[in-house]
């Protein structure tokens, strides 16, 4: 709604002084509304104006001197780059792209692990078919198959290892008894090696999936803590992924969030004039599963409303906190209890006031911690700079000492050479001759010169006296302290 200063200046210079009857043609409706609001100039934005703007844009290099098609293409490319950079958030800790990629990879891993585990079951089932009923879990079945190998080699000594994998002594004993009376066929060592290597791959994939889930939880706690506290990390990540970004999810109304993920069913119901779906991705939440069949639609509508509030708080808050998510979750719990027992829940205004107070405390604590970290960082940087300066000074001093030593060594060498050649050193000029003494007696010296002519022995005695006085003064000060 605020007109840019450059555009305002351009319009002020381009338009005539009397603007009352001037009509501008503007390609963008928003820009036209802004111009009309700021400058009071009537703007037309539809019909012929759009065609004129398209023609001007197409023939712009021919209309402007010095502008070539190549430079116009470069300008368009630069504008596209700047727009893309503006769309990306610069806070690396709050990037929702990583959540979208990780939840997509998590879903793909679930499908792949399920397919590979079924393959291991079929492959190893020829040799030990009874194991499928005893160990139904996929990852545990792959671990047991890798551990057992050939069922004929399974003995009482292997019970401890089986108990560690299965986490149940009764199951381990059942596996041992089933291996002794199994109906499976014998298998060659080469086939067993292939089955074990494939089982190892499936186990590593399962471990990677667990690590990826932990990574997703940590990212959701940084990017959308309120949404993850309300509906869970996985369901919240699926909502963000389906919407495209956290900002898009925050822009959606509650009715859209409620059926997000059930678009096919919605359009099919609209086409056949049937019942529209009551829930989409939020069906995976525990709240809808806990609600009675007659209350599932109502609780899904209420939950979608709270999810919209949580996503907007996460998107537009400066310091992300999970306080609002916890309070919203409590509200959904109270609404569930209201459907079952009839106990009236708290009002939304009261809950939000409590949440605001707690959130302010949490934000203040977070800011305090950040300030402490910054102070520590500055101190560390200061110490590092001081250490570097001290090291540089030491290096300079060592260089100076080496240079002085070199100069002294050169002088000694010169003296030795002179002594070897037989040259006598030049006599130094004698001080205080007879004529000088006579002149000194005749003319009285000024005070400054008198001070200079004091004998060196007297100067040393005065210095010693001053040092003794200083030492006495320091000792007295120490005694007083």
From TrEMBL:
Main location, first listed in the record: nucleus
Record's compositionally biased regions (Basic residues): 464-473
A GO cellular-component term linked to this record: small-subunit processome
A GO BP entry: ribosome biogenesis
Transmembrane segments: none
Gene3D superfamilies: 1.10.287.4070, Nop domain
Record keywords: Nucleus, Ribosome biogenesis
Localization, UniProt: Nucleus, Nucleolus
PROSITE patterns documented for this protein: NOP
Keyword Nucleus: yes
Subunit structure: Part of a large pre-ribosomal ribonucleoprotein (RNP) complex, that consists of at least 62 ribosomal proteins, 45 nonribosomal proteins and both pre-rRNA and mature rRNA species. Within this complex directly interacts with TCOF1 in an RNA-independent manner. Core component of box C/D small nucleolar ribonucleoprotein (snoRNP) particles; the core proteins SNU13, NOP56, NOP58 and FBL or FBLL1 assemble stepwise onto the snoRNA. Interacts with NOP1 and NOP58. Interacts with NUFIP1, RUVBL1 and RUVBL2; RUVBL1:RUVBL2 seem to bridge the association of NOP56 with NUFIP1.
Job of this protein: Involved in the early to middle stages of 60S ribosomal subunit biogenesis. Required for the biogenesis of box C/D snoRNAs such U3, U8 and U14 snoRNAs. Part of the small subunit (SSU) processome, first precursor of the small eukaryotic ribosomal subunit. During the assembly of the SSU processome in the nucleolus, many ribosome biogenesis factors, an RNA chaperone and ribosomal proteins associate with the nascent pre-rRNA and work in concert to generate RNA folding, modifications, rearrangements and cleavage as well as targeted degradation of pre-ribosomal RNA by the RNA exosome.
Name of the protein this chain belongs to: Nucleolar protein 56
Species this protein is from: Tachuris rubrigastra
């Amino acid at each position: 709604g605020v007109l840019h200063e450059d555009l305002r200046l351009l319009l002020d210079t381009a338009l005539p002084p009397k603007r009352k009857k001037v009509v501008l043609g503007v390609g963008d409706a928003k820009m036209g509304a802004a111009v009309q609001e700021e400058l009071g100039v009537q703007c037309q934005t539809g019909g012929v104006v759009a065609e004129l703007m398209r023609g001007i844009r197409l023939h712009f290099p021919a209309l402007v001197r010095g502008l070539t098609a190549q430079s116009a293409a470069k300008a368009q490319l630069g504008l596209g780059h700047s727009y893309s950079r503006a769309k990306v958030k610069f806070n690396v800790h709050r990037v929702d792209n990583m959540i979208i990629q990780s939840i997509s990879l998590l879903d793909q891993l679930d499908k792949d692990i399920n397919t590979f585990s079924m393959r291991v079951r079929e492959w190893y089932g020829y040799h030990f078919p009874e194991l499928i009923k005893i160990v139904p879990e996929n990852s545990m079945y792959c671990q047991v198959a890798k551990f057992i190998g050939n069922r004929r080699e399974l003995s009482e000594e292997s019970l401890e290892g089986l108990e560690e994998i299965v986490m149940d002594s009764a199951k381990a004993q059942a596996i041992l008894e089933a291996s002794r009376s199994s109906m499976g066929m014998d298998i060659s060592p080469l086939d067993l090696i292939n089955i074990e290597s494939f089982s190892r791959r499936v186990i590593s994939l399962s471990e990677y999936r667990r690590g990826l889930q932990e990574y997703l939880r940590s990212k959701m706690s940084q990017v959308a803590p309120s949404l993850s506290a309300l509906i869970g990390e996985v369901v919240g990540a699926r909502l963000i992924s389906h919407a495209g970004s956290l900002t898009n999810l925050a822009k959606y109304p509650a009715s859209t969030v409620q059926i997000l993920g059930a678009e096919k069913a919605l359009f099919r119901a609209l086409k056949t004039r049937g019942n529209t779906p009551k829930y989409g991705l939020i069906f995976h939440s525990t709240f809808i599963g806990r609600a009675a069949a007659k209350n599932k639609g109502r609780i899904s509508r209420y939950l979608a409303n709270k999810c919209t509030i949580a996503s907007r708080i996460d998107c537009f808050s400066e310091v992300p906190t999970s306080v609002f998510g916890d309070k919203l979750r409590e509200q959904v719990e109270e609404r569930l209890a209201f459907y079952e027992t009839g106990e009236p829940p708290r009002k939304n205004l009261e809950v939000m006031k409590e949440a605001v107070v707690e959130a302010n405390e949490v934000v203040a604590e977070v800011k305090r911690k950040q300030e402490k970290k910054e102070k520590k960082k500055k101190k560390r940087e200061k110490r590092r700079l001081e250490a570097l300066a001290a090291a540089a000074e030491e290096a300079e001093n060592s260089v100076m000492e080496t240079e002085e030593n070199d100069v002294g060594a050169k002088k000694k060498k010169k003296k030795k050479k002179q002594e070897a050649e037989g040259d006598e050193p030049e006599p130094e000029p004698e001080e205080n001759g007879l004529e000088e003494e006579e002149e000194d007696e005749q003319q009285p010296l000024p005070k400054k010169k008198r001070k200079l002519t004091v004998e060196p022995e007297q100067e040393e005695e005065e210095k010693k006296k001053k040092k003794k006085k200083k030492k006495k003064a320091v000792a007295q000060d120490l005694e007083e302290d």
